[in-house]
Amino acid sequence: MAFELKQNLKLSQQLIMTPQLQQAIKLLILSRQELVDTINQEMEENPLLEEVAQDESTPEEISAEAGDDVQSIEKEESKAPEHTAELTGEGDGREEFDWNNYLEDYGPVGVSYNRADGEPPTLENILTQSPSLTEHLMWQMKLSPFDDEEVRVGAQIIGNLDHNGYLCATVAEIAGLENVTREYVEEVLEKVQEFDPPGVAARNLQECLLIQAGMMAQENPLLEVIIRDHLKELELKNYVHIARRLKVPLRDVEAAVMLISKMDPRPGAVYSEEKVQTIIPDVYVVKSGDDYKIVLNDDGMPRLRISNFYREIMAGVGGRGEEEEDGKKYIRDKVQSATWLIKSIQQRQKTIYKVAESIVKHQKDFFDRGIKHLKPLVLRNVADDVEMHESTISRVVTNKYMHSHRGIFEMKYFFGSSIQKTSGESIASKSVKAEISNIIAGEDPKKPYSDFEIVDLLHAKGIDIARRTVAKYREMMGILSSSKRKQYF
User: Fold this and answer.
1) How far apart are the C-alpha atoms of 379 and 135, rounded to whole Å?
2) Any idea what the Cα angle at residue 118 is, between residues 114 and 122, rounded to 5°?
3) Mean pLDDT over each residue of the chain, to the nearest integer
4) 191 Cα distance to chain centroid
5) Residue 427: beta bridge partners?
6) 3-state helix, strand and coil shares in percent for the chain, rounded to the nearest 5
7) Beta pairing partners, 291
8) CATH class of the domain comprising 418-485
9) Confidence at 317, pLDDT banded by 50, 70, 90
10) Does the domain made of 133-271 have the CATH classification 2.60.40.10?
């Protein structure tokens, strides 16, 4: 059999991920803060990108300018070289600058102070930092009569506490690390457990509660007995069984449980270093008459344009040498990259606007009348409405937030499964969760509703779901079972 080479023409379609498309997809899935960080990073890497001041040209003008920059490079090459003035160091920036007055005059925005002399305080009197749990305990240990070896072991104990104040390492591990006996570590641990907050450095919940019980001014021997021997019955609120086993009146058990309920099971959480993150919405939904308008939030978002400084550089490059050609190629590549970035950001904003507009159109009853009127919505509904793919809609609603008079919601919030009502209509699962939450909020604390009773109450409202579905929704919302919600006093 002979082999031979032949040439054939074939026409076919093929989907290719161009660099522009890859960049647009990457920007689409980013959150607002991630987008700002990406833009700032691009501005550092691309010298042709610069931020537009608020009083300069509009984004439309910037886009038109960016589209013409690539063609304008060749025109600039033919122009005569232009030279900028030489920097001599005279003039601007020569005077001495009063940094103290600058820092005091431009302090934190929105903070005002009233003083008799009319002068604002310095930054040292404004800025504060809350101590961490480790710093708070180390400060107490330095004020306690600890010797050097006790300080060393105590620091090891404090360093092995989690954010709730519990000791993660064992006594044997600490003894091995510090080359001391277990008994010595136990002695130092007992001293650390006397620090504030009460219950810190405990090894488990039982020890944490026992430490707090021992620090109470009101001595009640029943406290330690219940915590040490009947913690499981205490969790199940089986107070009758505890009273019967201890042979004490039920009233005494209830009084002890009242004191235990005031204890803190997570003593170190008050010094947690977790900070509350402020949510900046990407979209505002503004009510206008009977309709709603979509307003994109551009505050704090850098407005980009291609710098005109490269024109002077291109005009100053003469000849046809290798270095000159490399410089021109570098500028062309950076102009192309900057143009793609600007257009991708504008396309991202347009896509978010279309998706938000479609969500508001589908969920108009929710914005008008509340959570009970939230409709079932899937990605395909919005995708068909805006004529985009479902994967694009999924990227748009990820890490994006919408502000309205109903509150701030993640755009994913408006999507969810449906449950069939007895009337044949569909209701969103989030609306069912809201109904369950309202039923539990209005129950008698001494006689809470069971899951079966909640099913009957929902059925009376036309919502037919199984008991296991109620239990699943209740656990998703972090609501305890009826036996643990019951209050005896």
Assistant:
1) 49
2) 80
3) 81
4) 38
5) 419
6) 55, 10, 40
7) 288
8) mainly alpha
9) low
10) no
